[in-house]
## 1
Amino acid sequence: MSTIRLMLVDDHDVVRAGLKSFLESQEGFIVVAEARTGEEAINTSLLTRPDVVIMDISMPEMSGLEATRRLKAVYPECQVLALTVHQDKQYFFEMLAAGATGYITKQAAPEELVAAIHSVAEGHVYLQPVLARWLLDDYHRLLTTTHGELHTAQREKRIDKDLEVLTQRERQVLEAVAQGMTSPQIGELLGISPKTVARHRERIMNKLNLHSAAELVKYAIRTGLIEV
């Protein structure tokens, strides 16, 4: 696996120093840039082209939320992993909507941070289990508060029909992607190459009219392909 280029965005120098020391002690990571503000993060990312930006949310001048929106607009191929003290539903959903493909709290174990970076670098979604549960809860809330039982039945029927457009192999790939597996891991599980996995993912997103890894996860949860 090639080295993953990282940028650390946090307004606390001590936090960045600790993260840099830990991450560069791990095989396959290199910190190519640091930033103290959202504005600095956007400008620096265009110069250094990191693979993954580890983004704090609460920063002066420009929040990590706004920085993520603007960063994804000018540098869409970059993956953003939110690393924050906030275990908060509003921040969680807003960061995903802004374009982040991972959300992890600073209370997480170091090995979980490493796993999260690898996952988002592969273009997958990484959510801590307690946070992923919010996606399912939010879906259930929408079902029960919009148009009642008839709406629920109609939506479930439509979802079943949507799944019919996927081949059995595509369903297997979708399930594995939603569980946070990387392309090499999926390839090993299914006995296919990572490139073939990538082609399956592209066809899945085209067939289902999905546009991000986060949407893939939500779709897999609400269709019952994975349980949270």
## 2
Amino acid sequence: MGRITPSKGKAVVGGRIVPGDQAFLAITDDGVARGDGVFETIGVWGGRAFRMTDHLRRLGASSRALRLPAPDAEGIAADIRTLLAGAGRADGLLRVYVTGSGATVVTLSAPPIRAPIRHLVPQPAPWIRPLGTYGPAGAKTMSYAHNMAATRAARAAGGDDALLVAAEGWVLEGPTFAVLWVADGVVRMPAIDLGIVDSITCRTLRELATWPVEQGRWTVDDLAGASELMVCSAGRDVEAVHRVGDLRLGNSTPVRDELSAALRNVRRGT
């Protein structure tokens, strides 16, 4: 196994392969000027795009939610195969962008080196609303400024990242990752109908878990009963979190350890 180096990153723009550092969107494109567009992040493990079909279906759902034209899923899949053809068995990260101006960009790069997340600081997320309350609820859009501001606020408060919390007090997700925890022997995940992104990594973990899994609505106070808290995403492992605000969790992580091993195996097809 290897890693795609940043210098070997590449992209498909308008059907043409270019070096990753030459993949540009015009400043006048609505995706840049207004954040009007949708995107997907797909993990590449051992040269294979993990659950690519699920990601492209979610891309289509996000486009429908924003009333954008349907993306060319077959064309994007072909671009992905083209990019992976020279990657061998390397690990990497694919990003697919479809903007309101009609531009489509697919990039392949090395997985980013991320600092571990051990301390989450709750941050209000009034922009995340339940499904059915407005069109873009639950869509994975290019408009991530609110999420990034929450990350910066959490770090300013001494944490590693934010735990986004609904106006009603419900635990939602992280700015760029999903959250899950263990309480009373049950793996708990926030319900998708809260308006969070339908995490494909969480979907995979539900299929892999040997513990009961429950989706629902819980508050930050409910986390006091958690024995483990975890974060995950398409480009991350399942990571243990040991603190939420002033709440500290123990260092024993048997559920995280089992889920992490199972996820690694299925990502690599072993």
